[in-house]
Every structure is written in C-alpha cells, then in structure tokens.
C-alpha cells in the first residue's frame, strides 16, 4: 500500500492527513493504556498498525528521494514538519503506555499460571532410580485470541 499522489503538494497534504490520523489514533490508544483499558482499543490495533506501516513506508520513500516533496509549497512542508513533531511526541507517550500495558498483561498471565499451578494436584515424576517423586511441572495453555 502506498500513497497515490499526483504531485509534491498532493503528497505533502496526504502525508499531513496520514500523520494527523495516526496522531489521533495513537493519542486515543495511549489514553486507554494509561487508564489500563487495553481492551477498549484492541479491535482497532490492526488498522493502526496498517496506517503506521504506510507512514513508515512513505517516510522511507521521502528520505530516499526528497524530491518527492521538495516542490510542495513551503507552508505545506512546514505544516508537515509540525504534524511530524506532534506525532513523535504522541509516539513516545504511546510507547510508555504500551510498555505499561504489556507489563500489566504479563503480570496477569503469570498470576493466572501460578494460581492454576497452585490449584492442581502436584505432579508425579520419576527419579533416576525409578522411584516416584513429587514434581511441580505443570502445563499451561494460553489462548492467543483471548
């Protein structure tokens, strides 16, 4: 997927729109992460990832070929620079919130696994001599779609 700009001015306007759209989405997600409400944005994460990938791809194209936007009006390029700075600030906030959500989720998974292990009867294994011994080995199955 790529932008289909007709000229440099059109490309800059599309990049501004894309950047502002991502900025809004990431702001909403960051707020949800900060409020520990990860599930509120879970259904939108795929679309955000697609837009972020498009943004990354287009930024790489412009970096490799600055002429793609050079002919755009100066004020449009300045608005793009402003939108990019705002986006970078939101990305930092998003990264912090995402890390917090990840830590919280991992903690919950560990707590559930420990509780499951504590509730189960101790397993029985065999020692080198063939004698039965108590073992704490347990299996935990996680549903990735949950």
Polypeptide structure, described:
There is one protein chain. The chain has 146 residues and is mainly alpha-helical. The protein has a single domain, classed as Methane Monooxygenase Hydroxylase, Chain G, domain 1 (Up-down Bundle), CATH 1.20.58. The chain contains 4 helices and 2 strands. It has helices at 8-34, 45-64, 67-70, 74-119; strands spanning 123-126, 132-135. Strand 1 (123-126) and strand 2 form a beta hairpin. Helix 1 packs parallel to helix 4 (74-119). The mean pLDDT is 84.
Radius of gyration: 24 Å
Q: Uncertain segments of ≥5 residues (pLDDT<50)?
A: none
Describe the sheet with the most strands: 2 strands, antiparallel
Residue share in helices? 55-70%
| CATH fold title | Methane Monooxygenase Hydroxylase, Chain G, domain 1
Number of helices: 4
Q: Residue-averaged pLDDT, rounded?
A: 84
Instruction: Indicate the CATH architecture.
Output: Up-down Bundle
- In percent terms, what proportion of residues is strand? 5-15%
Instruction: Please count the beta strands (DSSP E, at least 2 residues each).
Output: 2
